[in-house]
Specification:
Helices cover about 85% and strands about 0% of the residues. By secondary structure, the chain is mainly alpha-helical. The protein has a single domain, classed as MetI-like (MetI-like fold). The longest helix has about 35 residues. The C terminus is likely disordered. GO terms for molecular function: amine transmembrane transporter activity; carnitine transmembrane transporter activity. It comes from Paeniglutamicibacter cryotolerans.
Protein backbone atom coordinates (compact mmCIF):
# COMPACT_ATOMS: atom_id res chain seq x y z
CA UNK A 1 0.00 0.00 0.00
CA UNK A 2 2.78 2.40 0.98
CA UNK A 3 4.64 1.55 -2.26
CA UNK A 4 1.51 2.40 -4.28
CA UNK A 5 1.21 5.74 -2.52
CA UNK A 6 4.88 6.51 -3.26
CA UNK A 7 4.47 5.55 -6.94
CA UNK A 8 1.31 7.67 -7.20
CA UNK A 9 3.12 10.58 -5.57
CA UNK A 10 6.07 10.28 -8.01
CA UNK A 11 3.77 10.09 -11.03
CA UNK A 12 1.87 13.20 -9.91
CA UNK A 13 4.93 15.44 -9.41
CA UNK A 14 4.60 18.83 -11.17
CA UNK A 15 8.07 19.98 -12.33
CA UNK A 16 7.54 23.69 -11.65
CA UNK A 17 11.18 24.14 -10.67
CA UNK A 18 12.42 22.61 -13.94
CA UNK A 19 10.05 24.85 -15.92
CA UNK A 20 11.35 27.93 -14.10
CA UNK A 21 14.93 26.82 -14.76
CA UNK A 22 14.16 26.42 -18.48
CA UNK A 23 12.63 29.90 -18.63
CA UNK A 24 15.66 31.36 -16.86
CA UNK A 25 18.04 29.62 -19.31
CA UNK A 26 16.05 31.04 -22.24
CA UNK A 27 16.22 34.54 -20.72
CA UNK A 28 19.99 34.26 -20.20
CA UNK A 29 20.55 33.09 -23.80
CA UNK A 30 18.23 35.59 -25.53
CA UNK A 31 18.05 38.71 -23.32
CA UNK A 32 21.66 39.04 -22.16
CA UNK A 33 22.03 42.38 -23.96
CA UNK A 34 19.01 43.87 -22.17
CA UNK A 35 20.32 42.83 -18.78
CA UNK A 36 23.76 44.26 -19.61
CA UNK A 37 22.06 47.62 -20.23
CA UNK A 38 20.08 47.33 -16.97
CA UNK A 39 23.27 46.47 -15.11
CA UNK A 40 25.12 49.45 -16.60
CA UNK A 41 22.30 51.88 -15.72
CA UNK A 42 21.90 50.67 -12.13
CA UNK A 43 25.67 50.48 -11.59
CA UNK A 44 26.10 54.07 -12.79
CA UNK A 45 23.25 55.33 -10.59
CA UNK A 46 24.61 53.49 -7.56
CA UNK A 47 28.21 54.61 -8.11
CA UNK A 48 27.15 58.24 -8.59
CA UNK A 49 25.00 58.34 -5.46
CA UNK A 50 27.60 56.49 -3.39
CA UNK A 51 30.24 58.99 -4.60
CA UNK A 52 28.04 61.92 -3.52
CA UNK A 53 27.53 60.42 -0.05
CA UNK A 54 31.07 59.13 0.60
CA UNK A 55 33.38 61.71 -1.04
CA UNK A 56 32.56 64.80 1.11
CA UNK A 57 33.73 64.93 4.75
CA UNK A 58 31.40 62.98 7.04
CA UNK A 59 30.40 66.12 8.95
CA UNK A 60 29.24 67.83 5.75
CA UNK A 61 26.94 64.89 4.93
CA UNK A 62 25.66 64.87 8.52
CA UNK A 63 24.83 68.59 8.30
CA UNK A 64 22.83 68.03 5.09
CA UNK A 65 20.92 65.05 6.53
CA UNK A 66 20.24 66.88 9.83
CA UNK A 67 18.98 69.89 7.87
CA UNK A 68 16.66 67.57 5.95
CA UNK A 69 15.38 66.13 9.24
CA UNK A 70 14.81 69.65 10.63
CA UNK A 71 12.90 70.69 7.50
CA UNK A 72 10.78 67.53 7.60
CA UNK A 73 9.85 67.34 11.26
CA UNK A 74 11.63 69.90 13.39
CA UNK A 75 14.23 70.16 16.14
CA UNK A 76 13.66 66.80 17.88
CA UNK A 77 14.24 64.74 14.75
CA UNK A 78 17.22 66.93 13.81
CA UNK A 79 18.89 66.36 17.20
CA UNK A 80 18.10 62.62 17.12
CA UNK A 81 19.47 62.35 13.58
CA UNK A 82 22.68 64.15 14.52
CA UNK A 83 23.23 61.79 17.48
CA UNK A 84 22.43 58.68 15.43
CA UNK A 85 24.69 59.63 12.51
CA UNK A 86 27.51 60.53 14.91
CA UNK A 87 27.14 57.09 16.52
CA UNK A 88 27.44 55.46 13.08
CA UNK A 89 30.64 57.39 12.39
CA UNK A 90 31.97 56.58 15.86
CA UNK A 91 31.45 52.85 15.22
CA UNK A 92 33.51 53.12 12.00
CA UNK A 93 30.48 52.12 9.90
CA UNK A 94 30.16 55.40 8.01
CA UNK A 95 31.29 54.21 4.56
CA UNK A 96 29.28 50.99 4.84
CA UNK A 97 26.20 53.00 5.88
CA UNK A 98 26.53 55.45 2.99
CA UNK A 99 26.90 52.55 0.51
CA UNK A 100 23.75 50.97 1.95
CA UNK A 101 21.93 54.32 1.88
CA UNK A 102 22.87 54.70 -1.81
CA UNK A 103 21.57 51.20 -2.57
CA UNK A 104 18.33 51.84 -0.67
CA UNK A 105 17.73 55.19 -2.39
CA UNK A 106 18.36 53.83 -5.91
CA UNK A 107 16.17 50.77 -5.31
CA UNK A 108 13.42 52.83 -3.63
CA UNK A 109 13.32 55.42 -6.43
CA UNK A 110 12.99 52.69 -9.08
CA UNK A 111 10.34 50.87 -7.03
CA UNK A 112 8.35 54.10 -6.54
CA UNK A 113 8.55 54.99 -10.26
CA UNK A 114 7.16 51.54 -11.11
CA UNK A 115 4.63 50.99 -8.34
CA UNK A 116 2.84 54.36 -8.08
CA UNK A 117 1.76 54.54 -11.77
CA UNK A 118 0.85 50.84 -11.57
CA UNK A 119 -1.31 51.52 -8.50
CA UNK A 120 -3.04 54.46 -10.22
CA UNK A 121 -3.76 52.30 -13.29
CA UNK A 122 -5.10 49.52 -11.05
CA UNK A 123 -7.39 52.02 -9.28
CA UNK A 124 -8.76 53.27 -12.61
CA UNK A 125 -9.15 49.94 -14.45
CA UNK A 126 -10.68 46.96 -12.63
CA UNK A 127 -9.19 44.46 -15.12
CA UNK A 128 -5.67 45.74 -14.35
CA UNK A 129 -6.42 45.49 -10.62
CA UNK A 130 -7.54 41.86 -11.04
CA UNK A 131 -4.20 41.04 -12.75
CA UNK A 132 -1.97 43.12 -10.48
CA UNK A 133 -3.32 41.83 -7.14
CA UNK A 134 -2.22 38.18 -7.47
CA UNK A 135 1.15 39.31 -8.86
CA UNK A 136 1.65 41.59 -5.84
CA UNK A 137 0.58 38.71 -3.54
CA UNK A 138 3.25 36.54 -5.18
CA UNK A 139 5.97 39.19 -4.90
CA UNK A 140 5.11 39.98 -1.27
CA UNK A 141 4.95 36.40 0.02
CA UNK A 142 7.85 34.81 -1.88
CA UNK A 143 10.84 34.39 0.51
CA UNK A 144 13.32 37.22 -0.11
CA UNK A 145 16.27 34.83 -0.53
CA UNK A 146 14.63 33.29 -3.62
CA UNK A 147 14.94 36.57 -5.54
CA UNK A 148 18.71 36.41 -5.22
CA UNK A 149 19.03 33.21 -7.30
CA UNK A 150 17.82 34.51 -10.70
CA UNK A 151 19.36 38.00 -10.34
CA UNK A 152 22.68 36.42 -9.42
CA UNK A 153 22.59 34.31 -12.62
CA UNK A 154 21.47 37.25 -14.77
CA UNK A 155 23.58 40.07 -13.32
CA UNK A 156 26.48 38.47 -11.46
CA UNK A 157 27.68 39.59 -8.02
CA UNK A 158 27.87 43.17 -6.72
CA UNK A 159 25.41 45.91 -5.80
CA UNK A 160 23.32 45.65 -9.00
CA UNK A 161 21.74 42.22 -8.25
CA UNK A 162 21.06 43.53 -4.74
CA UNK A 163 19.29 46.60 -6.20
CA UNK A 164 17.18 44.52 -8.62
CA UNK A 165 16.20 41.99 -5.93
CA UNK A 166 15.34 44.86 -3.59
CA UNK A 167 13.14 46.54 -6.22
CA UNK A 168 11.18 43.32 -6.81
CA UNK A 169 10.88 42.66 -3.07
CA UNK A 170 9.73 46.22 -2.20
CA UNK A 171 7.40 46.84 -5.15
CA UNK A 172 4.11 45.51 -3.76
CA UNK A 173 3.31 48.01 -0.95
CA UNK A 174 3.68 51.00 -3.27
CA UNK A 175 1.16 49.65 -5.80
CA UNK A 176 -1.26 48.42 -3.12
CA UNK A 177 -1.29 51.65 -1.07
CA UNK A 178 -1.58 53.83 -4.17
CA UNK A 179 -4.59 51.87 -5.45
CA UNK A 180 -6.15 51.97 -1.97
CA UNK A 181 -5.59 55.71 -1.65
CA UNK A 182 -7.08 56.57 -5.06
CA UNK A 183 -10.09 54.30 -4.54
CA UNK A 184 -10.68 55.79 -1.06
CA UNK A 185 -11.31 59.30 -2.37
CA UNK A 186 -15.00 60.06 -1.86
CA UNK A 187 -17.09 59.80 -5.03
CA UNK A 188 -18.89 63.10 -4.20
CA UNK A 189 -15.60 64.99 -4.39
CA UNK A 190 -14.79 63.47 -7.78
CA UNK A 191 -18.32 64.21 -9.03
CA UNK A 192 -17.92 67.84 -7.93
CA UNK A 193 -14.80 68.08 -10.06
CA UNK A 194 -16.63 66.55 -13.02
CA UNK A 195 -19.50 69.02 -12.52
CA UNK A 196 -17.00 71.89 -12.91
CA UNK A 197 -15.85 70.39 -16.20
CA UNK A 198 -12.46 69.11 -15.05
CA UNK A 199 -10.83 66.50 -17.28
CA UNK A 200 -10.07 63.00 -15.87
CA UNK A 201 -6.35 63.80 -15.81
CA UNK A 202 -6.97 67.07 -13.96
CA UNK A 203 -9.26 65.30 -11.46
CA UNK A 204 -6.53 62.75 -10.86
CA UNK A 205 -3.77 65.36 -10.56
CA UNK A 206 -5.61 67.97 -8.50
CA UNK A 207 -8.22 66.00 -6.50
CA UNK A 208 -7.56 62.29 -6.19
CA UNK A 209 -3.76 62.33 -5.95
CA UNK A 210 -3.54 65.10 -3.28
CA UNK A 211 -6.26 63.47 -1.15
CA UNK A 212 -4.63 60.05 -1.53
CA UNK A 213 -1.14 61.41 -0.83
CA UNK A 214 -0.96 60.37 2.88
CA UNK A 215 -1.87 56.79 1.92
CA UNK A 216 0.58 56.83 -1.02
CA UNK A 217 3.33 58.13 1.27
CA UNK A 218 2.56 55.28 3.70
CA UNK A 219 3.23 52.92 0.79
CA UNK A 220 6.46 54.73 -0.07
CA UNK A 221 7.48 54.47 3.58
CA UNK A 222 6.94 50.70 3.38
CA UNK A 223 9.00 50.53 0.17
CA UNK A 224 11.94 52.21 1.90
CA UNK A 225 11.66 50.02 5.01
CA UNK A 226 11.51 46.83 2.95
CA UNK A 227 14.46 48.06 0.86
CA UNK A 228 16.51 48.60 4.01
CA UNK A 229 15.60 45.15 5.33
CA UNK A 230 16.70 43.66 2.00
CA UNK A 231 20.10 45.40 2.22
CA UNK A 232 21.31 42.81 4.73
CA UNK A 233 20.19 39.90 2.53
CA UNK A 234 21.74 41.55 -0.53
CA UNK A 235 25.08 41.43 1.27
CA UNK A 236 25.14 37.71 0.44
CA UNK A 237 25.55 38.50 -3.28
CA UNK A 238 28.39 40.97 -2.79
CA UNK A 239 26.33 44.15 -2.48
CA UNK A 240 28.72 45.43 0.19
CA UNK A 241 27.75 48.13 2.67
CA UNK A 242 26.15 47.15 5.95
CA UNK A 243 24.80 43.93 4.40
CA UNK A 244 28.33 42.85 3.58
CA UNK A 245 29.44 43.69 7.13
CA UNK A 246 26.57 41.69 8.66
CA UNK A 247 27.34 38.74 6.37
CA UNK A 248 31.04 38.96 7.29
CA UNK A 249 30.15 39.05 10.99
CA UNK A 250 27.83 36.06 10.59
CA UNK A 251 30.32 33.86 8.73
CA UNK A 252 33.20 34.84 11.05
CA UNK A 253 31.14 34.82 14.29
CA UNK A 254 32.33 38.40 14.83
CA UNK A 255 29.96 39.74 17.51
CA UNK A 256 31.27 43.35 17.70
CA UNK A 257 31.04 43.80 13.92
CA UNK A 258 27.56 42.22 13.87
CA UNK A 259 26.28 44.50 16.64
CA UNK A 260 27.77 47.68 15.14
CA UNK A 261 26.56 47.01 11.60
CA UNK A 262 23.12 45.89 12.84
CA UNK A 263 22.79 49.02 15.01
CA UNK A 264 23.74 51.16 12.00
CA UNK A 265 20.92 49.55 10.00
CA UNK A 266 18.47 50.39 12.81
CA UNK A 267 19.61 54.03 12.95
CA UNK A 268 19.25 54.45 9.17
CA UNK A 269 15.81 52.76 9.30
CA UNK A 270 14.56 55.14 12.02
CA UNK A 271 15.92 58.17 10.16
CA UNK A 272 14.32 57.22 6.83
CA UNK A 273 11.06 56.16 8.50
CA UNK A 274 10.62 59.46 10.34
CA UNK A 275 11.48 61.52 7.25
CA UNK A 276 9.03 59.74 4.92
CA UNK A 277 6.31 59.55 7.59
CA UNK A 278 6.50 63.32 8.16
CA UNK A 279 6.38 64.05 4.41
CA UNK A 280 3.06 62.19 4.13
CA UNK A 281 1.53 63.67 7.27
CA UNK A 282 -0.05 66.81 5.93
CA UNK A 283 -2.88 66.72 3.42
CA UNK A 284 -2.52 69.04 0.49
CA UNK A 285 -5.15 71.53 -0.47
CA UNK A 286 -7.46 70.61 -3.35
CA UNK A 287 -7.72 73.03 -6.26
CA UNK A 288 -9.89 72.40 -9.34
Amino acid sequence: MNQMVILASDSFRIPVGEWADSVLEWVIENLAGLFNVIKAVFQTAYDSLAWVLITPPFWAVIIVLVALAFWAKGVKLAIGSAIGLAVIYGMDQWENSMQSLALVLVASIVAILLSVPLGILAAKVNAVSAIVKPIMDFLQTMPAFVYLIPVLLLLGIGPVPGIVATVVFALAPGARFTELGIRSVEAEVVEAGQAFGASPMRILRQIQFPLALPTIMAGINQIIMLSLSMVVIAGMVGAGGLGGAVYQALTGLNTPLGVESGLSVVILAIFLDRITASLGGAKKAVHV
